[in-house]
Design a protein that fits this description.
Elements: E1 2-7, E2 12-19, E3 22-30, H1 32-36, H2 43-65, E4 74-80, H3 84-101, E5 105-109, H4 110-116, H5 118-121, E6 129-134, E7 139-144, E8 150-155, H6 161-171, H7 178-188, H8 212-224, H9 231-260, E9 264-268, H10 275-282, E10 289-291, H11 295-298, H12 302-314
Length: about 325
């Protein structure tokens, strides 16, 4: 079975071809250099560039997979959540293909695609598992029993972790995106001391997160220091911020795994590429099976859309051609 996967939820266009659940081709067109000039994603630019890239990328994917569009058994596409303009570019493009070649359309929730993406690299993963999805737009904890039974256990009540990284990076004058640059500075630093930023993000008695408090504390700390910042000040702030954020992500995830008795943990989303997050989870590998995929499967990509689309198709969950896209509510795509 051949599934074409199309991802266009934000500022990256992803197109992938999967055959029987395995990646054949996975292509990405990134807009980072464009949005980097503005310190963040500009929605209008993002959707326009999605429109420019999606057709060429689909042609290239089919060419590299040595298939024609008519050979595809189903078209899986992101229907949300995301920037609605970008989502609609991919969704309407996929609808056009599905109608033209008379093949099923499979609407895929972007967050859930991240949630299941570790299974692409680790096919021996078994249900149930605790899933942490952490990215620029999402920070959520789930228990996952199968492709249909997913329970949200906790989420951010304000900023997502990746969003906090971007805002702190901007305040430090490090640019966009903030995650990779702060991670790089922190991992290269030999500073032993740390600033004790408030752990207000550790909301007690539940599995929710809050990153607004630490973001504000870091920005206030920066304003108190003599400007321009010295290199060692920048490194100290970056390191301290990263330690506070990554530790709470890991602690909450481990706490949920312990409370539920689930011994498998899967981490996905763009922030899952973070070096410190991976180090911290490594410390628990004697007690838990920890699955964190390679960087290319952490960030937005067409393969994760195609993979979940493949699983939904096998379960008979195809979508009506009139299915709508959505901006910010997470739900399982409804079948016809």
């Amino acid at each position: 079975m051949i599934i074409l996967g199309i991802e266009s939820s934000c500022d990256e266009t992803g197109v992938a071809v999967l055959r029987d659940g395995k990646i054949v081709v996975d292509l990405i067109s990134s807009q980072i250099t464009v949005h980097g000039r503005f310190g963040g994603v500009v929605p209008e630019y993002a959707s326009r560039m999605q429109l420019e890239a999606i057709g060429h990328l689909t042609e290239q994917a089919c060419r590299e997979a040595h298939i024609r569009l008519q050979d595809v058994d189903g078209i899986a596409v992101t229907i949300g959540p995301g920037l609605i303009g970008s989502v609609l570019v991919g969704l309407n493009f996929a609808k056009g293909i599905a109608y033209a070649i008379d093949k099923p359309l499979i609407g895929v929730d972007h967050v859930q695609a991240h949630l299941f993406s570790p299974m692409i690299e680790f096919p021996d993963m078994h249900f149930p598992y605790v899933g942490l999805v952490v990215s620029g737009g999402h920070t959520e904890l789930y228990t996952v029993k199968d492709f249909r039974e997913i329970e949200l256990k906790g989420k951010t009540v304000d900023d997502a972790a990746g969003e906090a990284y971007d805002k702190v990076s901007k305040s430090l004058g490090l640019g966009y995106p903030g995650g990779p640059v702060i991670d790089n500075i922190s991992m290269q630093s030999r500073i032993q001391k740390k600033i004790k930023f408030p752990m207000a993000l550790m909301i007690k008695d539940n599995y929710n997160f809050s990153f607004s408090g630490i973001k504000t504390a870091v920005i206030r700390h920066i304003k108190k220091i003599e400007q321009p910042l010295k290199q060692e000040d920048t490194a100290l702030i970056a390191l301290s911020f990263q330690e506070a954020v990554q530790n709470v992500l890991v602690k909450k995830t481990i706490a949920l795994a312990e409370q539920t008795g689930i011994n498998s943990i899967a981490v996905s989303g763009g922030v899952a590429a973070n070096s410190r997050l991976r180090q911290l989870f490594d410390e628990y590998r004697k007690s838990f099976n920890v699955y964190i995929p390679r960087t290319g499967l952490c960030t937005d990509n067409g393969s994760m859309i195609a993979f979940l689309g493949y699983q939904l198709y096998r379960l008979g969950r195809v979508s009506n051609i009139n299915i709508d896209g959505y901006a910010n509510n997470t739900r399982i795509p409804e079948g016809t």
